[in-house]
Design a protein that fits this description.
491 residues; alpha/beta; Immunoglobulin-like; Rossmann fold; 2 domains; 8-stranded mixed beta sheet
């Protein structure tokens, strides 16, 4: 007779017995949380962990199913961080002892088909995290034989840190991803009599998604109206004297933020221009601010105007042998790998927004610089030849969005200002970049406007303007849309 056993999610932590215990638990939660959110900034392949509730909210008594997919085959370790800071290894386990994971769309599911256990939500409740690590070989510090001797193995921060040390210096050999879930009391999502209902603000209570004085963004009430949040980056002045300054990229970012706040029902906007747009500030905005202000189901817009370029691929994931990168204000040409935003890194950062609809708009190019209006990083004056033809593609992020789509992250779209072998222009009038000018004009109209409709309009406008003002050249915007339904730029 088959015996079924149950892991009651969120019930493995220590019981709260008083202020001292609460303090120790809070410290442990901080330490374990820090371990869980470590990212591989330059992954050789992408990994995705997901759950069977799209909003990632679970109520007491509900069951959870976890899916993990990986761009490359490897060995999977799935770690669960509960509301009290305890770490439990969910995979491998005594029922699923082989921790191999295949490549591509085939997923590892926990519990697997026919498994004799369930993952059931129980107290204590709160924010919890699921972390997947996939390595190209078994990890010595997480030995499978030791991990599968009991139904679920509790591990320590020391165990996870040791695994990271084992992987250190080998970014191409592993990938990782984590998602936050929220567990709640209430019995399978049924409202309890006399209790405030999610998404229905109570008198005197904080409003959903709005920061309170002296606090950070705070929790967004999950049943609230979906939010629309934007990040607008524009860099005209660069710290490295070897990088040619631009004229209007900072104005591009401000113009886009202004029109979207005023005419596109944007709930919140983060604007980073020139000195504000350092690599560290951009990372903090994408990986911390945007996830804190949004939740699955919301829409996030990321706009960038500035320089793009390419460098030698370091992890073998690019078919043409080149990585592409965007240039932050403090980027340096003599240290590209450590100071520029490589496409692999940006792709991993976008995964922090998994579950949201993400639209990335790039008004950049990587080439030339012979014409004063070309948004090229190089110029003849520098004596640097950076051809933009000859079969070498500048495909920043579009390949990465396709790759993450292959492992299940689908709600993403990219609008780029020009094709791979073209340059992007600032307007002769000196007001805005060409794509940004016509996109701002489209957004300033009235009535609903979808991303595909806006693209169709600006594509022809940009092409006509460039052909008329820069004879002998072309600029053709590109749209890669992986979303399940058209995104409204202007609701």
């Amino acid at each position: 007779m088959k015996t079924e056993w149950t892991l009651c999610i969120a019930v493995l932590g220590l019981l709260w017995s008083g202020p001292a215990e609460a303090q120790r638990t809070a410290i442990r939660k901080d330490n374990t949380r820090a371990v869980m959110v470590v990212t591989n900034e330059k992954p050789g392949f992408y990994v995705r962990v997901d759950v069977d509730h799209p909003d990632r909210i679970y109520y007491e008594g509900q069951e959870m199913r976890v899916n993990v997919s990986s761009e490359k085959a490897g060995h999977l370790y799935l770690i669960y961080h509960d509301a009290q800071g305890n770490l439990t290894l969910l995979f491998p386990n005594v029922a699923q002892q082989d921790n191999a994971i295949p490549a591509g769309q085939d997923v590892v599911t926990v519990p697997g088909p026919g498994a004799n256990f369930r993952l059931v939500i129980g107290p204590p409740f709160g924010q919890e995290t699921l972390k997947a690590i996939v390595a190209d070989r078994p990890l010595k510090d997480l030995e499978v034989e030791q991990l599968t001797r009991q139904p679920f193995k509790q591990v320590s921060t020391k165990d996870i840190k040791a695994a990271y040390v084992e992987l250190k210096g080998k970014p191409q050999a592993w990938g990782e991803h984590y998602v936050d879930i929220e567990t709640r009391a209430g019995g399978a999502g049924k409202p309890q009599p006399g209790k405030p209902q999610p998404g229905k603000p109570q008198p005197g209570k904080p409003q959903p998604g709005k920061p309170q004085p002296g606090q950070g963004p705070g929790p967004v009430i999950p049943d609230a109206q979906p939010r629309r949040v934007g990040l607008f980056i524009g860099i005209s002045d660069f710290a490295d004297p070897a990088i040619r300054d631009l004229k209007v990229s900072d104005r591009d970012a401000q113009a886009m933020a202004d029109v979207m706040r005023g005419n596109c029902q944007l709930d919140s906007a983060i604007v980073l221009t020139n000195q504000q747009a350092s690599l560290a500030n951009i990372q903090q905005a994408i990986c911390q601010q945007l996830p804190a202000e949004t939740r699955p189901g919301d829409t996030v817009f990321i706009f960038w105007s500035g320089h793009g370029a390419r460098c030698a691929d370091t992890n073998g994931d690019e078919s043409d042998g080149y990585d592409e990168y965007l240039v932050p204000q403090d980027g340096r040409l003599d240290d590209v790998q450590n100071t520029m935003l490589i496409d692999d890194t940006f792709g991993r950062w976008v995964q922090e927004l998994d579950g949201r609809k993400v639209v990335v708009i790039l008004d950049t190019c990587h080439s030339g610089g012979q014409n004063a209006q070309e948004k090229g990083i190089y110029s003849k004056a520098l004596g640097v030849d950076q051809p933009h033809v000859g079969g070498v593609r500048f495909d920043f992020l579009d390949g990465d969005l396709k790759r993450t789509k292959d492992i299940g992250q689908k709600e993403t779209a990219l609008m780029a200002s020009s094709m791979a072998a073209q340059v992007s222009f600032e307007r002769r009038e000196g007001d805005l970049s060409t794509l940004t000018f016509f996109l701002v004009d489209q957004l300033g109209g009235s009535g609903p406007l979808t991303l595909p409709a806006a693209f169709d309009a600006v594509k022809s406008q940009v092409a006509q303007y460039v052909e008329s003002n820069f004879p002998g050249t072309t600029q053709t915007p590109v749209l890669i849309d992986n979303t399940s339904s058209p995104i409204l730029l202007r609701p």
